[in-house]
Amino acid sequence: MPPRPINDEPCPVARAVDIVGDRWSLLIVRDAFDDTRRFGDFQRNLGMARNILSDRLRKLVEAGILETRNASDGTAYQEYVLTPQGESLFPVVVALRQWGEQHLFKRGERHSVLIETRTGKPIPHMAPVAKDGTALPPSMTEVRKVT
């Protein structure tokens, strides 16, 4: 069962932004994709205040994006792990990464690269496509709003 929406917006983008639209939440999700699992590791990687991290982790757990588990190494620690719902945010994180690579770095400026582990090559650029596989620019789409 999906979590109760924070608002009654009929727009899926607005509802999603309510949950993962702030900087810290998205960076926590990004780090979770990189196998960061413990509170202290998130804090160290992100350099954020403990109270803000606690709040964002709690909200991500409540939203069903992360779940808590006992530490995999048998210690008393708790780990935060992406749920299937959280893992489905991967294309969102990749799209933001690719937009940033394209628009926020000077030519030749170094940045991290997302690679396919099987080939060691950067992943191809993501783009919406039509049923026949052709690229869909915004001008060829429309949102059917609730009336």
Structural description of this entry:
- Residues 11-108 form the HTH hxlR-type domain.
- One of its GO terms (molecular function) is DNA binding.
- This is Helix-turn-helix transcriptional regulator.
- It is a single chain.
- The chain has 147 residues and is mainly α.
- The protein contains 6 helices and 2 strands.
- A two-stranded antiparallel ribbon has the order 1-2.
- Strand 1 and strand 2 form a beta hairpin.
- The two termini are 25 Å apart.
- The mean pLDDT is 93.
- What is the number of helices? 6
CA distance, first residue to last residue: 25 Å
> How do the helices and strands follow one another from N- to C-terminus?
HHHHEEHH
Rounded radius of gyration (Å): 18 Å
Helix content: 40-55%
The poorly predicted ranges are none
Mean pLDDT: 93
Largest sheet properties: 2 strands, antiparallel
E-strand count = 2
Shape: globular
Q: Structural class, please?
A: mainly alpha
Strand content: 5-15%
Strand order of the largest sheet: 1-2
